[in-house]
Write a structure and sequence with these properties.
This protein is 71% helix and 0% strand. The protein has 258 residues and is mostly helical. It folds into 3 domains: 77 residues, Helix Hairpins; 68 residues, MazG-like (Helix Hairpins); 42 residues.
């Protein structure tokens, strides 16, 4: 049997959710598993970043577990099962790839993406605004990227990168003004505008802002841990100048690519 493990896995999930199964698994709902879905997806991305194929195989299994669990819960509630999920995806992929499964001729990836967006709009006619369909559950940074990308598709774009830098600088000045006036509400708003503008700078340069920040977070943690290793007294006792020197030393002890 070609997909013996997959079919056995579906049976295992059904068993775990049955009265003879696991009390924890039976208690789960779509909402209770939301955090698990996100965590497993991020752990799979971490494995991709590390080029750790055995770890990626394991983490993709954990992502698949979430798909199977949600499908089983929906089946028990009379909505759909994993076969319906696979069927919906199959139909979508065929419909959105007419250059592969149909007669459409395309010249490059830009044309493929443009046609994908056109077909997606045809599938979801209820979406009237470019802002419709943006997930409310994803991180604010990921939402900002999607919002920006969708707005640009309508032609709402900076004329050049110079004007984008000017926008970012303007947002910084507005934040400084709000701070001078001790306007904390406006400070929060202006800081949000700074972040949104920087996300657009990332998009302009074809950089994934979410991944860029994740890498920056990891880099900072690696360097901070090295600082902790190199410190000769409690870090709280360091002056700013001593901190700066220790940071530079930690940085020099780590591979520049890290």
């Amino acid at each position: 049997m070609k997909y013996e493990n997959l079919e056995k896995l579906i049976e295992i999930i059904e068993k775990l959710r049955s009265p003879q199964g696991c009390e924890w698994d039976r208690a789960q709902t779509h909402k209770s598993l939301k955090r698990n879905m996100l965590e497993e997806a991020y752990e799979a991305v971490d494995a991709m970043e590390s080029d750790d194929m055995p770890h990626l195989q394991e983490e993709l299994g954990d992502v698949l577990l979430q798909v199977l669990l949600h499908s089983q819960i929906a089946k028990e509630e009379g909505f759909f099962d994993i076969e319906n999920v696979a069927g919906t995806l199959k139909d979508k992929l065929i419909h959105r790839h007419p250059h592969v499964f149909g007669e459409l001729k395309v010249s490059d990836t830009d044309e493929i993406i443009s046609n994908w967006d056109k077909l997606k709009k045809e599938e979801k006619p209820e979406r009237k605004s470019a802002m419709d369909g943006i997930s409310k559950s994803q991180s604010a940074l990921m939402s900002a990227q999607k919002i920006s990308k969708n707005a640009v598709k309508t032609g709402f774009e900076w004329p050049d990168e110079k004007s984008l830098y000017e926008c970012i600088n303007s947002e910084f000045e507005e934040f400084k003004s709000a701070k001078i006036n001790h306007d904390t509400d406006n400070m929060e708003e202006e800081l949000g505008d700074i972040l949104f503008a920087v996300v657009n700078l990332a998009r302009w340069n074809k950089i994934d802002a979410e991944q860029a920040l994740l890498k920056a977070n990891k880099k900072f943690m690696r360097r901070f841990r090295k600082m902790e290793e190199l410190a000769i007294k409690p870090l709280k006792e360091y002056t700013f100048e001593e901190y700066d020197e220790l940071w530079k030393l930690a940085k020099s002890k780590i591979n520049p690519k890290n």
